[in-house]
């Protein structure tokens, strides 16, 4: 067990990361079969209106398109059967009483426990929990405070939502607490039950997201385990865009007639996102590397946001100056899909142990907002 000390350096490091992966997984084949059954049902139930031109017939989805357009082959979900049921196509579970741990907190706690165990960290020595995620279960009490309570942490917690960039924004917030001496051990937890915001009936996006939870333990170097990752620098950026949007919220009550419209779930202009975000993020990485006096072409590994394999290929190429291989820019899209803010953390968690002491890499997120965050790290230990 790591002993905490009163000596604080103000130098932030990543002590460990944690991961919770739901047991259920849906392959593209299963997903497309279910989607296409829904399309058949819809078209036959609305045959007359389609024939009269009143509504348009729905088009089937395809496994080949999904894999080619996104690189996604499967995704984990909290509940598989209802998502695949063409009459439901949404997650379903029993509503829990307030006395019971809520489902989002439950998976967040699991990811946190994994990170704490890996760091050998006693919860008594953790000061704060930041729940940084796109898909909060409720507005209050904060999910972070419930997770803090379930873990038995004496300190404070709050929620923050910067969509797919929530985790990197959380890491920067945690590093600022460490730098200021306001905390020496901070959990940044990203429970992403994306199956709730995804419109499983929308052909353009039904394949994109998956459920997961990650945790990052950001600590003062003075209390961190011998093997850790120095945080060399963090940089955040936001630029307003409507190209990825979700209009769900309390104020939908002001317009009850539109409460069930598809824009109350995830919607995007995928092509525009692709075109606008790739150059913005690649430039941001290069500028920040330059500021930190790091040669971007010398980066040992990029743990990029996991939204689309093509975007990652282009960003990695611009940063490294050549086509990146799977070792330089690993993907988890094939088995996890897009897990919003958790994606780059899963990539880091599953693909960082083999790096050598002294190796420098980059955790990078980008998504709705637009929002983007970079966290340059170097292995120590
Ligand atoms: N099955 C089969 N064909 C499909 C389909 C599906 N499920 N969905 C769309 N298509 C078809 C369209 O009808 C269109 O056909 P057309 O050219 O004959 O009109 C064609 O495929 C291209 O559609 P488009 O939406 O332009 O595909 P794309 O190649 O741009 O890929 C995304 C779509 C969404 C996967 C891609 O744009 C993307 O990932 N962008 C970035 C998204 C992102 O990172 N978002 C962040 C979220 S946090």
Automatic annotation (TrEMBL):
Its EC number is 2.3.1.180. The keyword Transferase applies. Signal peptide: none annotated. Keywords: Acyltransferase, Transferase. One of its GO terms (molecular function) is beta-ketoacyl-acyl-carrier-protein synthase III activity. Residues 158-238 form the Beta-ketoacyl-[acyl-carrier-protein] synthase III N-terminal domain. Residues 293-378 form the Beta-ketoacyl-[acyl-carrier-protein] synthase III C-terminal domain. One of its GO terms (biological process) is secondary metabolite biosynthetic process. InterPro entries: ACP_syn_III_C (IPR013747), ACP_syn_III_N (IPR013751), Thiolase-like (IPR016039). Pfam families: ACP_syn_III, ACP_syn_III_C. PANTHER family: 3-OXOACYL-[ACYL-CARRIER-PROTEIN] SYNTHASE 3, BETA-KETOACYL-[ACYL-CARRIER-PROTEIN] SYNTHASE III. This is 3-oxoacyl-[acyl-carrier-protein] synthase, KASIII.
